[in-house]
Design a protein that fits this description.
The chain has 204 residues and is α/β, with parallel strands linked by helices. The strands form two sheets. It has an eight-stranded mixed beta sheet with strand order 5-4-3-6-1-7-10-9. Strand 3, helix 3 and strand 4 form a beta-alpha-beta unit. The radius of gyration is 19 Å and the shape is globular. The structure holds NADP nicotinamide-adenine-dinucleotide phosphate.
Length: 204
């Protein structure tokens, strides 16, 4: 069975990118000293990955970064990009898709060929995948900064189970199992829906 893993760096206050100009919204991360190896070593993670899935903002950040630096598209793996736009293709293995995430599940898992799917981001896409039963783990590398605002790591209430946590250089690496939408919030939403329906039926 395919495992879906949301692997991302995050500020201590829960953002994966700062507000503003995309050229600088990851400066807080890129300026951190990076030590190879460690519990969530990128090369080891990538070796277990068969396909990537990301949203349009993440993809265009990578396109802009390549244009600025001259660095080539960094992935040889199949990459599904969710977008409503006709964006340029960075490589033949990039596939533009849209609509309900579940409708792409079979194609994504076939492309992954029995290895993991890397959910690259952003957070809303990760939450959509989770709601469709397409998220197993969150591997969050916490940087020693707060941003105050930005793009949230996971903008939906959910329960997680901590599986691992370890310091690595300036970072804290963590791995969580996704346990589902927070049950307390589901109950509160159900009660709120019921009371708004009652309010509507009581209206003249
Ligand atoms: N810290 C890290 O390690 C890390 C990791 C990943 C990303 N990032 C950064 O975080 C930011 C993420 O941006 P973001 O939160 O805006 O998220 P995003 O997921 O990258 O992009 C969101 C966009 O994807 C498209 N999209 C999402 N779901 C769709 C669907 N079902 N059908 C069609 N299109 C869909 C829409 O764009 P359109 O409608 O415009 O096409 C939507 O506005 C970027 O700056 C990225 O570089 C950081």
């Amino acid at each position: 069975m395919t495992t879906y893993r949301y692997y991302t760096a995050v500020s201590l206050d829960g953002f994966i990118a700062a507000d503003g100009d995309s050229a600088h919204n990851l400066a807080w991360l890129l300026e951190q000293p990076h030590e190879p190896g460690g519990p969530h070593d990128y090369d080891t993670f990538l070796a277990g990955t068969g396909a990537l899935v990301m949203g349009a903002s993440t993809y265009t950040w990578l396109l802009d970064h390549s244009a600025r630096t001259g660095e080539p598209w960094p992935y040889t793996l199949p990459c599904f990009v969710f977008t409503h736009r006709d964006l340029p293709l960075a490589a033949p293995q990039v596939r533009l898709v849209s609509g309900e995430v579940a409708t792409h599940r079979a194609a994504l898992e076939e492309a992954a060929g029995g290895r993991d799917v890397w959910v690259v981001g952003g957070g809303a896409l990760a939450a959509d995948l989770a709601a469709a039963g397409m998220l197993d783990e969150l591997l969050l590398t916490i940087a020693p900064v707060t941003l105050g605002s930005g793009r949230p790591v996971f903008p939906a209430p959910c329960d997680l189970q901590l599986l691992e946590a370890a310091p690595h250089g300036v970072f804290l690496t963590t791995r969580y199992a996704y346990r589902g939408v927070r049950s307390g919030d589901l109950e509160r939403n159900r009660l709120a829906d019921e009371s708004s329906t009652l309010g509507e039926s009581a209206a003249p």
